[in-house]
Amino acid sequence: MSETSNDQRLMMHAALDGELDAAGEIAFERALADDPTLAKEFQRQQALRRALREKFAGEAAPAALRARIEARARPARALSRRDAFSMAASLVLGVGIGGGAMFLGLGERRAPGPGDALVASHRRALLAANPVDIASNDRHNVRPWFDAHIAVSPPTPDLAAQGFPLVGGRIDVIQGAPAPTLVYRYNGHYISVTALPAASAATPAAAPAGYHIVAWRGEGFNYWAISDADQPQLEDFARAFKVAVDSSTPPR
Amino acid sequence: MLTRDVSLRPHANDDEPGRPFDERMFNAVVTPHLDDAYRFARWLTGNAADAEDVVQESCLRAMKGLTNFNGHSAKAWLVAIVRNTAFTWMARNRPKALVLTDDLESAERSCADAPRAESPEAELIAKADAALLQKAIAELPATFREALVMREFNDMSYREIAEATGAPVGTVMSRLARARALLIERIGKELS
What we know:
The complex is a heterodimer. Chain A is an alpha+beta fold. Chain A folds into 2 domains: 6-55, no CATH class; 63-248, no CATH class. Chain A has helices at 6-16, 22-34, 36-55, 63-73, 76-80, 114-127, 139-150, 231-248; strands at residues 134-135, 166-174, 177-186, 189-197, 212-217, 221-227. In chain A, strand 5 and strand 6 (221-227) form a beta hairpin. In chain A, helix 1 (6-16) packs parallel to helix 3 and helix 2 (22-34) crosses helix 3. The longest helix of chain A has 20 residues, at 36-55. The N and C termini of chain A lie far apart (85 Å). In chain A, 41% of the residues are buried. Residues 76-110 of chain A have low confidence and may be disordered. Chain B is an all-alpha fold. Chain B has 10 helices and no strands. Chain B has helices at 23-29, 34-45, 48-64, 74-93, 104-109, 122-126, 130-138, 142-152, 158-165, 169-191. Residues 1-18 of chain B have low confidence and may be disordered.
């Protein structure tokens, strides 16, 4: 055998790629034995395959990218109905937390809701000398303080062990009514959690660039967490908050 | 950190009928192939930041078009979306990087070229380093490169590559053969 035909060469590639059936394998092995040129070329191809596999071990998608996409997949149920995803780059702002409802929204087609007021309060608080009216990392100080001032005392879990120490509390005015807001810290960021009465409207809120909102429904309250921390961290926080509140509520 | 797992199931939407976004299907079809999507985008765009953008946009498209999934190969379906997304994304953001090859047809028709007389030995090919290989792959004509990347780095079968690129299996085979011949030729030139 002198000339390696094109067909034989294609067969060689198919063999390399595991695309030959049993009969094809046998035919190829025979051709390999008969044709030293083909055998040499096969060695070259195998060397190339090895080099490629060794030098470029499969790179995984960055964890942050995966987290972003998975976070988007969660609330997309609510969005896709309105075809809100028609803008590929649109931002998803809310993410549902276990068992509770999720509220989310895009920049347009919505009336201002509590979310807007909450974001405004959070931003104003950050600009103020102190983001809280009562500064205390002890939840046993914060809760009675709310009770004394507005006769409402939302659950105030201690999340220091989870990396979210309590900073204190303040009273925001949301849609004309005072609302208790807890402030936690995460690294250099503040997280404001406002507890609104369970009957309050759940209008989607658009977070301005750089801020994130996570909302969930809890026992007796709707919670809104607002922060300039990254979305995954804010979701972690919301999860931790919910777990702590749920496990401290005696089962009925 | 957390003492127990919290279900992430969103509250059911009962206010609007119609076909809701199927999160479970997304997690079955798209999520398992994110690494492949990213790896493919990485080779197509040439850098990590662009690849992230492309994959993110691809996933949004995938969410929207989830009902179009034909049930064959989820990987091929997602890679096809990444391929299209990368193409439009590159045209929009990196117009200079797009090289259109006119003589591809004839290049493909000639199938796998017979190896040159001075074809390098297998031992030499094994010595090619990552930088050289990367450059050689980047310089391949686009259709050859995508076939090679899908095969070598995404571990896709001929049929899956055919599905993702819309080319017949025979064309896929010849593109792969041609891509490899060009790589080997290039390595031989650089290292001899």
